[in-house]
TrEMBL record, chain A:
This is EF-hand domain-containing protein. Residues 99-134, 142-177 form the EF-hand domain. Pfam families: EF-hand_7 (PF13499). GO terms for molecular function: calcium ion binding; magnesium ion binding. It comes from the Eukaryota. InterPro entries: CIBP, EF-hand-dom_pair, EF_Hand_1_Ca_BS, EF_hand_dom. Keywords: Calcium, Magnesium, Metal-binding, Repeat.
TrEMBL record, chain B:
GO terms for cellular component: plasma membrane. Residues 750-770 have a biased composition (Polar residues). Belongs to the TMC family. This is TMC domain-containing protein. Residues 728-770 are annotated as: Disordered. It is a multi-pass membrane protein. The chain crosses the membrane at residues 182-203, 255-274, 354-377, 389-410, 422-444, 511-536, 559-581, 626-644. It is found in: Membrane. It holds the Pfam family TMC. One of its GO terms (molecular function) is mechanosensitive monoatomic ion channel activity. The keyword Membrane applies. Keywords: Membrane, Transmembrane, Transmembrane helix.
Amino acid sequence: MGQGKSQFTEEELQDYEDLTYFTKKEVLYAHQKFKALAPEKVGHNKNAKLPMAKILQYPELRVNPFRDRICKVFSSSNDGDCTFEDFLDMMSVFSDNAPKAVKAEHAFRIFDFDGDDMIGVSDLREVIERLCGPEMKLSDSEIQQLVQNVLEEADLDDDGALSFAEFEHIIDKSSDFCHSFRIRL
Amino acid sequence: MDDEVESIEMKPASMRKTFTLRNKVARQAAVNFMPSRKMAYSTLRLRRVSSEHNALLEASMSDAPDAVEKQADIIVREMEQHHHLMEDNPLSEELRREALRDLPQGLTMKRNIRAKLSASVSLRSKRRPISMFKRMKYRISFTWKKSRDHFRDFIFSIELWYEAIRNIEGHLGSAVGSYFHLLRWLFGLNLMLSIFLISFIVVPQSLFDNGRNRTELKFVDFISGMGGLEDTLLFYGHYHDGIISTGPFQYNMPFAYFFTMVSLYLLFFAVLCYRTADSYRRNFIEPAGGGGGGSAVRAALATKLFCGWDFGVASPRAAALAARALYHEFRELLNEQNKKKEVSSIWTKIRQRLTNIVITAIVLGFIFGILYGLWLLLSVEDLTDNREIYISLIITAVTAVCPIMLHFIVKLEFYTARTALYVTLARTWLLDIGILMLLLVFWVQSDKSCWETSVGQEGYRLVALDVPVSLFLLPGIELIRGLLFHYKFIETPPEFNIAYNSLTLIYNQSVLWFGMMFSPLLVVAITLKFLLLFYVKRETALRACQTGKKVWRAAQTQTVLYALVALSLFSTLFALGSLFLRSSPACGAFGGYGRVYELLTEGALRLSQHSAVFAVLHFVTRPGPIAFVLVALCVAVYIARARAGAQRSMARLLRHMLRLQAKDKDFLLSAIEKVSNGEWLYSPKSEEYGADSHTWKYVNEVRKPSNAGYHFDGSRLSHSFLERPRSYVKENRPSSYVERQKSNEDGDTDSSFSWQGSSSYLNQNDVEKS
């Protein structure tokens, strides 16, 4: 960790500790992980911006069906490219210490593909298709039926889409969300 | 409750599809200006409000260069409304820090906001001298925070097996990871126990032993714990019953033994209870709360959708498996739905219930049969030379095989998958704890002179014989199955059976709780065993096993496992308290006392010298007072229950009121909207609403022709509303106001109130849901 330490001053670390759910050691550890994605570039500039393709080499993200969405949600330039701070942000939200509400907020944005602040029918279809993976495909009518069921269950006001409040309602009812929405550093 | 408020208040914002985005945003802005929104309940609301402002902003100027600045300004302005955040003292600084951390924004934005905030705070602050007391308070809270951070930092740097567990979670999912978390936690617990026991009991005794010659050991002794091993540090009987004096130091061994054991038992019981209760609250009570009153939303599919993907999965193979599992689950759900719902008659229900009862009775009979058999076996003397070993072997075999049998038996019954798992867990636990209790009772009532050592030996043998089973046999089977799968001899790879593996852990831990009192070094043995088990299990899990085909819901099962560990400790405490404390020890550390509890009454408190205290204690421990205490406890429990019931019904009432208020609000909002659009009182035709809508009631009951001064054809109106088929209402919901107008141009031109649409949706909804 000696190498990592030289790249950050004590104030910077304190700053990160204040603004994220990590301790200083964890911040340094996160930076190691970030550096491992592109050793030269990050060695040169500790807060270098890595293209989305590089970020997606992180093992958990590589296999995640929502990988591009995750990058876009956390990217400060909104195009999926992430600086170290974006990466730290991402890991902080996915960490054990982040409260459920913060996780839910980001999960909502990840699932909201078209960005209209509602999870609509098209978003739900996309979620189902991505969850089932590239090999197994549900037929169109099956997906339609599933979407219908989800809306029947969760769309409390019958407007054909899930608002954040409705989404959070589902999350609150599930004891597994915090377990599943988690990437360990 | 706050969340409930929010979820209801949010509804109006998205009430109609017909709204354009602009309309929605404007309306949300109006809602945000309501007084209730202006109060600082929690940072949660704060976050949401500010992010809605972001939506507002983004709608108007998405790519403006100073958008970030403006957004930050807005959020800062929001935060400034909350006075407790803006004071110039450490407490509010900490609150500020937390609020900032919880903002769903990037780091740059947070930093920006923080700079603005602190500028604003220092601008507002009136430098006042603060009192001594306050300064002390701040200093203490600051130091506390600092040391907590340091502690977390420290914990992270010593966290055991961090990468290993992460790796396992990456390959097999976090459910399997939870087994390893349990293993690691138990290992840590036992490590602490070992440290205490070794330093307070074993080391003094070994200092005392120094110089005594040892008896020679045979191989069988290592398995049976008898012969040469009997009179060693391993067992209770060996410990000195007097004061050990080395030089100037005096060490009272009976006291050390007694108080170390008692405090460790009680301490870890408290830890376990706390942990179980905490886990229970998080995984059972919190998810169940909120929706208890009538509108309990059981969003099984939606949960699957949004919580189904385990973000911790890191290997492509595991990801493919997880995707497949989810695919099959979706198919299954659909199939279930498409199947005609069989109307289960009362007879099938009775039959199922009866089967459950009968099989449960059979299983209980089976368990007690095993226990009885064991008792008989123990009572038979002089069967062979090493009958103790054989008996322990039988017990080990029973505890290894029975869970598998019970697992199959439960399939004959009619339970849901999760209940079936819990039932199996409970039965297995009952068997395990029954066997351990039986051993204790058998030795207590036997007339052996030093029965405590015998119980310790039983524990020792069980642990020793379980080593080959759980460290070599079971992993070996898994490895072989994995190899067979690898070379395509069998179709399915071995699954990592979380329930069975966790039960093994719990069994070992139960043996530990039972044996610890009579064999202090047993703790060390089990700690070492768990250490080895971790590596063995890691290897088999990574090399041979795969994730289960079903998506395993880990969180609640975890709670049940913790509860079982706590329960076995509780039953140990109960058994020891009722059997051991009253027994008259003949050997070991307590050998000098007539009864074990006299160690406390005579030894430590010297009660016989304080006759008043003795009399009081004597009175308190008589049946009368104890019965009184029990009755008082029962009354207290009853009162607590009654209060909980009252509060529950109060919560239901309040929730209902909230819902009504939300409806009112929506009703008023849409009314205002209509007014501002100049549609008040006159519109060609109202849209669909049922007889249950408020407006309908308003039109038909309040403004009845007899009430109002003019003619109103209520019957025709209601007729046309009620006759309209439901399906039409649901499917052909017009998507815009203009369309709605068109679709209603069926010649019906009488004037009616038009400010009811929104609430009618809501009502309809409620009717269909209930």
